[in-house]
Amino acid sequence: MLFFTYDIGLTTQARFYNVVFCTILSSLIDIDHFIAARSFKLKDITNLKQRGIFHCTTFWLILTLLLLVYTHITKRLNIYTLAYMILIAYSSHHIRDANRRGLWLYPFGHTSPLNKYFYIFLISVLPKLFAYLYVYFKPSYKNIVINYDSII
Questions:
Q1: Is 4 inside any structural domain?
Q2: What are 68-95's pLDDT values in tens digits?
Q3: C-alpha distances in Å from residue 86, one per residue of 40, 71, 92
Q4: Is the pTM of this model over 0.90?
Q5: What is the 3-state secondary structure (H, E, C) of 57-104?
Q6: Which helix or strand (DSSP H or E) is residue 109 part of?
Q7: How far apart are CA 101 and CA 95, in angstroms?
Q8: Domain that holds residue 80
Q9: Which domain of life is it from (predicted)?
Q10: Does residue 3 belong to any structural domain of this protein?
Q11: How far apart are CA 28 and CA 25, in angstroms?
Q12: Which distant-in-sequence residues (6+ apart) come within 8 Å of 130 by Cβ?
C-alpha cells in the first residue's frame, strides 16, 4: 500500500485496483503449497518438506527482469507498472516467509531466517524504495508526430 501512496502518477481508482491486484497475487503465491502437497488437506499442506516453485525468489526475480526488458523493447508503460506490482507482491510475501525460513535463492539454496528487526525494516522501507525506483527509472516515451504537409 505504501508504494501506491507515493506520487507515481496513478489515479485513485488505478491505485485501488493495483493494491487489490498485489494483495491477490501475494496470496496466490501460496497455491504452490497445494501443488507440492498434491492434496487439499490442511495436514498435508502444513507438513511439507520442501517449498513450491512460487516460493523461489529467483523465479520471481527472473520474471520481473524479463518484464522490465520487455517493457524497454516494446515501450509499454503498463507492463512496467505490472513488473513493479509483481515485485511488490512477491517481495512482501517472501520477506514475510523469510522471517521463519529464509529466502530461497536457487541455485544457491536458502538463506538463514531474517532477524525480526531486519524483517520489520525491510517491510517498512522496501515499498518506498520501490516507489522511488519506479519513478526514477520510469521510461518516458515520446510520441513523435510527423507533419507530412511540411515534407511535401
A1: no
A2: 999 888 888 888 888 988 898 888 888 9
A3: 26, 14, 10
A4: no
A5: HHHHHHHHHHHHHHHHHHCCHHHHHHHHHHHHHHHHHHHHHHHHHCCE
A6: strand 109-110
A7: 10
A8: 11-151
A9: Eukaryota
A10: no
A11: 5
A12: 3, 84, 87, 88, 91
